[in-house]
Structures are given as C-alpha cells and as structure tokens.
TrEMBL record:
Protein's recorded name: Uncharacterized protein
Lineage: Bacteria, Bacillati, Actinomycetota, Actinomycetes, Streptosporangiales
Source species: Nonomuraea solani
Length: 249
C-alpha cells in the first residue's frame, strides 16, 4: 500500500501524501528543515512545502536492503549523527514521533485481543507477548532524548559508495535512542535477507531499555506479517515468530 506519490524531476523530488493520515507532510518538512540546519548533507534539502506536499532535493544512493553487504560503520555514523544533531533546547519543542512505544504497546494488546489462532508457535508468541506487555511500563529509565526518523526500514538509508544518508521522515519526531535503535534492529528489512548486529554506544540503562524495546518491535512484526503476502520470501512470518519468542524468553 502506497502512502505517498513520488515524482522525480531532475534534481528535485516531489512527495505528495495520499493516504489521508494527517501530519505526514508536516513531520517530513519539519525534519528536513531541522536537519538542513543541524546536520547538513545527511538528508535531502527542503525546497517547498504545501498541503500534503513536500518538495526536496534529490540525493543519490542505493537503498541498503539492495546491497549484498551493509556498510555497518557508515550506517552507525549516519544514525549517530541523526540522533545527536538537534540541540536539546530545540528538540524539547519537537512533537513526539508518530508511534511512541506506549502507543505501540496499546495497539499490540488490542490486536492480541482479536488474534485468530494460526499455529502452535505463533499462538505461543502472542500469549507470551500479552503476558509481558500487560506488566511492562516503559517509564523514563534509560531514555536519552533524540530526534528519531521513526522508521527502521533499510530502504530509507541510501549508500552512495562513501556515506549513508537518510530519507523518509513522515513518522519522525522526538524519540529516544534505545527505541530508535531497537526499531531498526527488529525491522523486517534488516533480517529478511540476512542479518547483522549493529553496535551503538549505549549506557547500561539504555541497554536494558533496548532489550525491552526489541521485544516490543519483534512482537509487532508477528502481527504485521501474520497475513503473509508476496512482498517477503516464504517463511518470513515464522521467522518473525521465532525472533519474538527469542526476545521474550
């Protein structure tokens, strides 16, 4: 399902939001303006903003999910730069990312309430997930506020042979470092064709929050992939189930 229509005209990209969800263009524009000031060159440059429309510069690069091997060092550098770019006094004024972890937890519990039995392992993952979610309170322990893209899809990270740059900020906003790293680590695009563990510098409290958030996102993919379609290889759903069980154990 497409959430926007993208047209490329020379050095410009016109991205029109067509899914009817409010705020996507505003979040994208806000991110491009902030990062053009605080992390120039990391993202496209903002050119024009209108109703459900963002025009930005075109940047070259190959999406990471198309590469035979991920440039791990450069990817970590790009994510670190994104997270550290926006000064705290500015970040405090930025709205939260579209899906904060509390909202994801509540959504997963709602989905679990409507779960239709699939198979023994999938049903076990949902049961164990519900038990954990019902007692998990994210709180503020281990939270380091950062500007987050809000989307760990490796299609949004472009490699030009020298550096990694980032596109697609329609779900972006104020977040925390452990949540953003967890979302990337558990995103289906990061493990469906192979897997590598990226190493980020985190303190002990952030490491604990990272593990909790990885449980959350791994469980989320069980629900998102339950009606397996042609986009991913056969067996992707059961791989997601196995990952969720591993995280919950």
């Amino acid at each position: 399902m497409q959430t926007h229509d993208v047209q490329i005209n020379g050095d410009l990209v016109r991205k029109r939001f067509v899914d009817g969800k409010p705020g996507g263009a505003e979040r994208e524009w806000r991110a491009l303006v902030l990062l053009a000031e605080h992390a120039p060159g990391l993202t496209p440059s903002p050119v024009e903003y209108g109703t459900d429309l963002v025009v930005m510069s075109r940047i070259e690069g190959t999406p990471l999910f198309l590469l035979p091997a991920v440039p791990e060092k450069e990817l970590v550098e790009a994510v670190d730069r994104l997270h550290s770019a926006v000064p705290r006094q500015v970040l405090d004024q930025v709205p939260q990312r579209l899906w904060p972890v509390e909202r994801i937890r509540d959504q997963l519990l709602a989905w679990a309430g409507r779960w239709q039995p699939k198979n023994e392992l999938a049903d076990q993952a949902v049961r164990e997930g519900v038990r954990w979610l019902s007692r998990w309170e994210p709180g503020e322990h281990g939270v380091r506020p950062v500007f987050g893209a809000g989307d760990g899809n490796t299609a949004n990270f472009l490699w030009d042979g020298v550096r990694v740059r980032i596109v697609d900020f329609e779900e972006s906003g104020r977040s925390d470092r452990a949540t953003e790293i967890a979302e990337m680590a558990e995103h289906v695009s990061c493990w469906v064709h192979g897997e590598s563990e990226l190493r980020f510098e985190l303190d002990s409290a952030e490491e604990r929050r990272l593990l909790e958030c990885r449980r959350l996102f791994a469980l989320m993919w069980v629900f998102l992939l339950k009606d397996e379609g042609p986009r991913n290889p056969p067996g992707t759903f059961m791989r997601a189930v196995g990952r969720a069980l591993d995280r919950l154990s």
